[in-house]
Amino acid sequence: MKTLIYLSFFFMSLSETIAQNFIGNWQGQVQGSGGSLPAEMSITSAGNSQIVGKLHVHSGANIESYELKCTVNTPNAIGTLSYQDGTVFGLEMIWQNNTIQQQISYNNQVILQGSFAKKTEPTKPATSATKPDGLFRDPNLVGAWTHHENYSSNGGFYGGSSTTIVLNADGTIDDGGSSAYVSGPNSSGNSSGGGDNSVIAQIKAAGARWFTKGNMLYWRITINGKVIDVPNSKYYIEKGALLLTDYNTGKKMLYYKK
Q: Superkingdom of this entry's organism (predicted)?
């Protein structure tokens, strides 16, 4: 008795495995006394060795569609094709070497024979190294932003500095450079160069990406395989000016679109 049970489970498992061979999208032709016509099938699993799908036959500018229902009984799939007007045809399919051969019958007479091969998926074009991450980024923030600072002293010295950051559309950040000047009673000077490279370098090393939610600017970073979203600052934009309010300290910094 146990042997019969084991054999029953074995054949059920084998049928399910064979059923997987039929699943997918197929392209080929059906042939009858009137010649051959291009056709295509899409087949999915319905469980318990059942498969269902559609058969589309192209006849000139028309497409005739049939509902497919079969039971897989190794190595064949046997069932029906139902046309939209209610006509039901018999169907037998055999999978072999990644092809499907089929016979379509009506009133127990074979009227059509089909031959199908698995559709190959088109090769996807190469994508850039930075893949879309699905995060929303306020497009108004994209671009180069410059922060200015001015200072003066009782001794007649005054000066200023500017630092530029670049927020890219893909969520990365770049150093936009910096400049400074100083002037006094007997001397003056200015300089320019990179911005706060150490900060930018740390952000890049962490693989951080900026994104926005509401009026909040966030950084998304990955630490030990865990994705973490870190709130950075509240932002407000008006007439080319960007006001950032640090989330933790409340410090405000004003930037202008470069």
A: Bacteria
